[in-house]
Every structure is written in C-alpha cells, then in structure tokens.
Amino acid sequence: MARQGRWHCGSSTRRDILAIMAGWAVDGSTASAQPASERPKEGDLLVSAESETVLAPTDIPLGGPPVLAWPMNATDKTVRKDSRLNKILLLRLDSATLVGATKDRAAAGVVGYSAICPHTACEVDGWMADQQILECSCHYSHYNPREGAAVDGKLAVARPFTSRVGIIPS
User: Fold this and answer.
1) Measured between alpha carbons, how far is residue 130 from residues 64, 65, 95, 127, 134 in Å?
2) Cα–Cα distance, 157 to 150 (Å, whole number)
3) Cα 97–45–71 angle (5° rounding)?
4) Where in the chain are the domains?
5) What would the pLDDT profile of 77-122 be if each residue is shown by its tens digit?
6) DSSP string, 124-148
7) Residue 148: its pLDDT value, please?
8) Is the separation of the CB atoms in 141 and 119 below 8 Å?
9) pLDDT of residue 56
10) What is the pLDDT of residues 8-53, one digit of tens each?
C-alpha cells in the first residue's frame, strides 16, 4: 500500500483499501464513458467485426454460422468495440423455427445475442451447424438461438441489453 511515496506491508487499514477500490471504480467508470466502450444504444447500427461495414439481413448467412458484429453510433460512426461486452452474435434462421417473442423481434429471421457467455464471461464461439445451436467452449453450455434474441429492422440495436452481461453471482 503506497503512503507518502513509501510502501507499507501489513499496516493497511480498511479505509485505505476502500479508498483504493473507490479509485479503481472511478478509473473504470471513466474508461466506460469513452464513446467506443459505451454499451449499445437504441438506434446503433450493427457492423461486421471484420470489416466494420454496416450489415443488412442478407449479409447474415441463412442457417449460420453466426456473424460477429459491433454496435456503431449511427450519427458519428463510432464503432463501440473497446469493450468485449459489446460484441454481438448475429444469426439468420428460418422464421418458421423461431419461438414466441423471438419470432416477433427478429428482422427477416435475424436474431442477435451477446457474444459473451452469461455463466463464465467467455466468448461464445461454438456453432453446432447440424443442430443450429450456439456453444460456449469454456464450459460447453448450449444456447438455442430460436428463443430470446432481439434484432430490429436494419440490424440496429432496438433497446439496451436487457440483463447484465457476464458472470451473474448466485
């Protein structure tokens, strides 16, 4: 613990530790306030993670594999790629196979998911083409993309993420 330019071991108080943690929180919030690391906003366009070109439903192959995308501010063209939590998986599936609200929210059969696993915060990078299922290679959980995704119109973010991304403590 640094105090007046010196390191002290074992003499840190609870207050010292809380002050350092508060400093980290301030530093972290400052970083997230940068336009390229802000969370997706309503009206953001989705761009290819490879080429940063704006995506249309026809750019997503029917039946997979998923296409990685980033949200982009439609006004100032800032691609929000400075936070891995903003990475999005896009899939185009047969609309007849979509269930419930997913069918209502899909744009031409395109559904979108966070590319970050909610269990382990790993990137969901597996695609089981025969079953059309997403898989997290960290713990092999399977995700059915026909349920619970939202994409609107020009492959734009319709609303902010609906839940916390990453590990959710139990």
Assistant:
1) 10, 11, 17, 9, 11
2) 8
3) 90
4) 2-33, 36-143
5) 999 999 999 999 999 999 999 988 888 888 899 998 889 887 778 8
6) EEEEETTTTEEEETTT--EE-TTSS
7) 61
8) yes
9) 95
10) 334 445 554 455 455 444 444 444 468 999 999 999 999 999 999 9
Dist CA 90 CA 58 (whole Å): 11
CB 102 within 8 A of CB 109: no
Asked if the bond preceding 40 is cis, omega within 30° of 0, the reply is: no
How far apart (Å, rounded) are the C-alpha atoms in residues 1 and 75? 45
User: Which CATH number fits the domain 36-143, given the four candidates 1.10.8.80, 1.10.1740.10, 3.40.50.720, 2.102.10.10?
Assistant: 2.102.10.10
Joined together, the tokens standing for residue 103 give: 């069918």
pLDDT of the residue at 110:
93
Residue in the block written with tokens 């929180």:
25
